[in-house]
Design brief:
340 residues, ABC transporter involved in vitamin B12 uptake, BtuC, 14 helices
Length: 340
């Protein structure tokens, strides 16, 4: 069921802009659309009453919106790269331990209250943890100095389990301190509260840098879906290209999870949906995945903001609830003998 790729991309981009506008003005309480229009019509701040409203939009809502947009796009692109690199439709950005390492680093920063001294201590610790665990997976997954998909997967599973256990220990280590343990648990379930322009710089910078690197080599991803000997006959070193692409995907994942916490299903479901709509060619698959990923995460966070305050609805929970039905749809297709 493919549609014209350019038309699909344009439609999703327009929808993303509409949802982004709703994200800024659709709230339970506080300044809404009329207040935003007043600020736009008073760009030089002649009315002092608009100063607080402008601060709310520019320092609270807009950074959170941008982190959600860049983060969703980065996870979706990382998922598309993983699925093509591993030639496995069930591959996801957390496959090689990047997300688990980021969660562990962030959990340690929260347990030891490093954010009290450095505002971006949690994302920086998450980036360090993601880089360390990903590097270990690549070292342990190597086979006599050569890239091994099977070895990488086994090392990823092993370190995901180990780092997950260490993260759980970090939570129980401070379980007697409800404030500390609850902050860790809430962060592990994903959320975008209190995002600032520093967080936008990390997530947006990661998406722009690594996304541009992936986009330049989109044609290689098309070839990596073939067998290694076929890809080699068409002019690329499949082993080296897979290694490089996986590092790009890990960069996208690390710079996102460092600021969002645990986000489920975005990198796994969105590439499937984009491929179903526009086909497998990565020249269009990557940008459509990016827009769809941003749309999904912005919309999910909007639901979290509109939920009653006492519900404590977490972003990772919303994305998991939205993603699970799509996997039931994939299961139905598989039973009918259709290709995933």
């Amino acid at each position: 069921m493919s549609v014209r790729p350019a038309r699909a991309l344009l439609c999703f981009a327009v929808l993303l802009c509409a949802v982004g506008l709703a994200y800024l003005v659709w709230v339970r309480e506080g300044p809404g659309l009329s207040a935003l229009l007043d600020c736009v019509l008073d760009p030089f701040g002649r009315d002092p009453n608009n100063d607080i409203v402008r601060c709310v939009f520019l320092q609270i809502r807009l950074p959170r919106l941008l982190v959600a947009g860049f983060g969703g796009a980065a996870l979706a692109v990382a998922g598309a790269v993983m699925q093509s690199t591993f030639r496995n439709p069930l591959a996801s950005p957390d496959l090689v331990g990047t997300a688990a390492g980021a969660a562990f680093g962030g959990a340690l920063a929260l347990v030891f209250r490093l954010e009290d001294s450095v505002m971006v201590a949690v994302p920086l610790a998450s980036l360090a943890g993601a880089t360390l665990v990903t590097g270990l997976v690549f070292v342990l997954g190597g086979s006599y100095g050569r890239f091994s998909v099977a070895g990488l997967l086994l090392a990823g599973v092993a370190l995901n389990t180990l780092v997950g256990a260490l993260t759980a220990f970090a939570v129980t280590f401070r379980f007697d301190n409800y404030s500390a343990s609850s902050r860790v648990l809430f962060w592990l379930m994903g959320g975008l509260e209190g995002r600032t322009w520093a967080h936008v710089l990390i997530t947006g910078g990661g998406f722009l840098v690594f996304g541009a690197l992936v986009r330049r080599r989109a044609s290689e991803l098309d070839l990596l879906t073939l067998r290694d000997d076929s890809a080699h006959s068409l002019g690329i070193d499949a082993q080296r290209s897979r290694r490089v692409m996986l590092w790009y995907a890990c960069g996208l994942t690390a710079t996102t999870v460092a600021n969002t916490g645990g986000i489920a299903f975005v990198g796994l479901v969105v590439p499937h949906l984009a491929r179903l709509l526009t086909g497998p060619t990565h020249g269009i698959l990557l940008p459509v995945s990016a827009v769809l990923g941003a749309l999904l995460l912005v919309g999910s966070d909007l639901l979290c903001r509109l939920a009653p305050p006492d519900a404590n609805l977490r972003l990772g929970v919303v994305t998991a609830v939205l993603g699970a039905p799509y996997f039931l749809f994939l299961l139905a297709r598989h039973r009918r003998g259709e290709v995933l």
